[in-house]
Amino acid sequence: MVSMEQSLASVTHFSFSNDLLNQLAQETQESVPALRSALTRAIPVAVQALAGRVSGPDGPETIWKLGREAYGASVLEPMATETHHGWIARGESLMRGLLGESYHFTALRVATAANFGLPVAERVLSAAAVAALGVIGEHSQEHNLTPEALAAWLVQEGGRLPGMLLPTSEPTPVATAPDAVAPTPGLATGVWAPVGGGQTYTPPAVGGSEGRSPVRWQWGALLLAAVVLGYVFGNWQDMPFKQSNKVGVAATPLAAATPSGSQGGRYDASTGNYIYDTGQPLILHLADGTTQKVGATSTENRLYTFLADPTQQVDSVNRTKGWINFDRVYFEPGATTLTDESFLQLRNVASILKTFPASVVKIGGYTDSTGNPLKNFQLSEERAKTAMLAIAGMGVDINRVQAKGYGGKYFITPNTTPEGRALNRRISIRVIKK
User: Fold this and answer.
1) Residue 378: how many CB atoms within 10 A of its CB?
2) What Pfam families does its record include (predicted)?
3) pTM of the predicted model, to two decimals?
């Protein structure tokens, strides 16, 4: 039972008796102290994920039912083998669904911190989720809570956690809700808008500064609320474009970029890269039901909006128009090796392109004007091909992606400053067929 003085996370942690921990230790071949330490990291993530899950249209009933089932199955006690393995699988499936593509990174963080193998970390996350459900079910039953009352309590418990514990990479939906068009009343006052058969959600600005205030736990809940509102629309070609209150920025012609970048940002002297400001965060819902957490002026939102909006067409005459700069794709200095953080945006773009199977795009590579022009051209060509192959390797037909290097041509700002040169070293994308 969770008292006023105790948090859901702490009670879940204490619910791991010596018998439960010994059972877990036998399964994983890890020590009890190491497992207890790993659970300290895994339990708050599970609690925060569940707190976000109740924000969906079917969330309160889903968590209420799962909690009651878990408590009824005595998951807080050592179980028979068949029942035990069944709940292990349910816990893993639940966490994979709640965290989406962040699941792997979360498990990796737990594994690294505890010096575990990845399978053990995944098992710990599953155990944390199942135990939290058991405590939730016990609290719900003892206090005779309705699904709505349980949801309110669980959201409050999420607020007791310090900061945002969930990773920031984009999640995938854990449930489909074809009729979902707005978040649960009272959760937030952000803006939902239909775009191209999907939905975008823009959280409210906090403290008068768009996306600049410290992130609080509510953003984790909002993120997961948007996740559970993802829905599958079926065949994209059969759907009309919904134009009311469209959210997104049209692709900006390359020549129109300002010296500081059309999105704004700053020069990072330590890496030599230009760090773009991608605007206020929003949740981009693709027509296939997947979601991405991006910025309003990000590459992803601009590309998706261009593809989804039938009023925006490819300019087949002026081929310098319609280019969209990648704002989070970088290479090692003077090399064609993508940095680790670049793959997230490339994966997002690949997902968008898969949502529009008729589209064809071109990847452009550019350098600054310093050094040998021929070598710059070769470098830009190889970088464009590297980005193209990365996208193709993520499931996009290679025939739908072209690559071209332009070297130091078509610079968007003078090369006289480090900031200007960083802006000119870029990878861009242009839709050449919708």
Assistant:
1) 16
2) DUF937, OmpA
3) 0.46
